[in-house]
Specification:
Helix content is 56%, strand content 7%. The protein has 269 residues and is of the alpha+beta class. A four-stranded mixed sheet has the order 3-2-1-4, covered by helices on one side. The radius of gyration is 24 Å and the shape is globular.
C-alpha cells in the first residue's frame, strides 16, 4: 500500500520532494481517477494531514497506520463483493477455527500455575516459554490453512510471470520499451518495490538513457544519475514506510507495576 505513493507520482497525481532528508508529498491533482475504493480512500486520507495540499512524512507518524489498516479492509471487501476472493471461504473458516485453539495452552499454563504452583524461577520461565511456543505454532498453522480460489491461482500465476520478466528481461527489450515509453522505468518501479526486485531492476537500466523523473525532487542530487536517484529513492521509501506504518506504543501494566511494553505496526509496501 505504501508503494502507491510512487505509483500515483508516476501517474502525475503527486510530487515527492526530498529536502535535507525531509520528505514532503505535494498534491498535483485533487481527484484520483480509479475504480478502486480502497485506493481513493488512501489517497484522500493522505491529505487529512499537513495543510491539505502537501504533507511532511513526519506528520503521518503514529497516526496514518489506521488508514493503512482501513484501506486493507476496504480492499478485502471489494474483492468479496466482486466475487474475486483469493482464498476459499471454507479454508479461511478452518484456519480461524484452528486459531481458536490458541486458548488451550494459555489455559493449561494458568491451571498448572494455579493448582500445582511454581517453586522456582526456572520452572516459571519454562512454563511461560512452552506456552508462548505453543501459541506461536498454533497461530502459524492456522494462518497457513488457506486454499486459493481459481481466481487466486490465476492472479498468483500472473504475478510470478511478471516477476520473472523483471528478473530476466534483456537490454534490447528494455531499450525498445523505453523508446515506446520514456517513463517506463518509473511506471514499473512501484511494482518492483512490492516484488522486492527494485535494485535488480535499476541495475538493468544503468547503461540506458533514463531521463530524470518529473515528479521527484532532491536537493542532494546536483547531477542526475540512476544510481544517485535510487539511493535517494530508497531513503524516501524507507522514511515513508517508517512514518506511514508506525503506531504509538501501547503501555501494559503487569501486577500493578509501571512496566511498559512497546506495541507497533510494521510491514512492507
Amino acid at each position: 500500500l505504501t508503494s502507491f505513493i510512487f505509483y500515483w507520482a508516476s501517474k502525475g497525481y503527486l510530487e515527492i520532494h526530498d529536502i535535507d532528508k525531509r520528505f514532503i508529498i505535494k498534491k498535483i491533482k485533487n481527484e484520483l481517477v480509479t475504480e478502486n475504493e480502497f485506493e481513493k480512500y488512501l489517497f484522500n486520507s493522505l491529505f487529512l494531514y499537513g495543510d491539505g495540499e502537501s504533507v511532511d512524512t513526519d506528520d503521518l507518524r503514529e497516526v496514518f497506520y489506521k488508514h493503512i489498516e482501513k484501506a486493507g479492509e476496504i480492499f478485502e471487501v471489494d474483492l468479496a463483493l466482486d466475487h474475486r476472493r483469493l482464498y476459499t471461504s471454507k479454508s479461511i473458516r478452518c484456519g480461524n477455527t484452528v486459531k481458536t485453539f490458541v486458548a488451550l495452552p494459555v489455559m493449561g499454563a494458568f491451571l498448572y500455575i494455579n493448582f500445582v504452583g511454581i517453586y522456582s524461577s526456572f520452572l516459571l520461565i519454562s512454563v511461560i516459554g512452552e506456552t508462548a511456543l505453543s501459541v506461536i505454532i498454533t497461530m502459524i498453522i492456522g494462518g497457513q490453512i488457506k486454499e486459493k480460489t481459481e481466481y487466486g491461482n490465476m492472479i498468483l500465476g500472473r504475478v510470478r510471470g511478471f516477476k520473472r520478466f523483471l528478473e530476466t528481461t534483456e537490454k534490447k527489450k528494455l531499450e525498445m520499451l523505453l523508446k515506446e515509453n520514456p517513463s517506463y522505468f518509473y511506471d514499473i518501479l512501484p511494482y518492483t518495490i512490492v516484488l522486492g526486485v527494485s535494485d535488480m531492476w535499476a541495475d538493468k537500466f544503468k547503461d540506458l538513457a533514463v531521463e530524470p523523473p518529473t515528479w521527484y525532487y532532491s536537493n542532494s542530487m546536483s547531477i542526475f544519475t540512476l544510481a544517485l536517484f535510487m539511493g535517494s529513492f530508497n531513503n524516501s521509501f524507507s522514511a515513508l514506510n517508517d512514518s506511514m506504518l508506525s503506531a504509538p506504543k501501547a503501555p501494559t501494566n503487569f501486577g500493578g507495576g509501571g512496566s511498559s511494553m512497546g506495541g507497533g505496526s510494521s510491514g512492507g509496501g
